[in-house]
């Protein structure tokens, strides 16, 4: 089991969880209203996952059984898909019974990137569970 509570980047009931790379403006902010939910937050790529490229962060809401795979990207949105898929592939068995959500926060979203086959197939598979927004994405858990 790789996702232990002692490796979490946040406190169990943290009010605001920020996924951000150092010296970068792109970020994902999740709000835990009234600190009601038990949450865990992990840096995957380069930390827990070292042997292969993977999505950057994983945010887990243990109370609602939701797992958010988060990729912060430069401008190549289509490159985020294999990284999200790899993160999902590595951890979905450890998160059995959870709902999966995928977030991409690029510097910019270019129309031709989101029309590419790999991105469209991923979007068709996950539907509303995939969201993307330039520079900063905020959501309530």
Topology (elements, then pairings):
Elements: E1 16-20, E2 27-31, E3 39-43, E4 57-61, E5 66-73, H1 80-91, E6 99-106, H2 111-114, H3 117-126, E7 130-132, E8 136-140
Parallel strand pairs: 2-8, 5-6, 6-7
Antiparallel strand pairs: 1-2, 3-4, 4-5
Textual characterization of the structure:
The protein is of the alpha/beta class. The protein has helices at 80-91, 111-114, 117-126; strands at residues 16-20, 27-31, 39-43, 57-61, 66-73, 99-106, 130-132, 136-140. The strands form 2 sheets. Strands 3-4-5-6-7 form a 5-stranded mixed beta sheet. The protein has a 3-stranded mixed beta sheet with strand order 1-2-8, with no helix packed on it. The protein starts with 15 loop residues before the first strand and ends with a strand. The model has no long low-confidence stretch (mean pLDDT 91).
Keywords:
141 residues; alpha/beta; five-stranded mixed β-sheet; three-stranded mixed β-sheet; 3 helices; 8 strands; 18% helix
Short account of what is shown:
With 141 residues, this protein is of the alpha/beta class. The chain has helices at 80-91, 111-114, 117-126; strands at 16-20, 27-31, 39-43, 57-61, 66-73, 99-106, 130-132, 136-140. The protein is globular, with a radius of gyration of 14 Å.
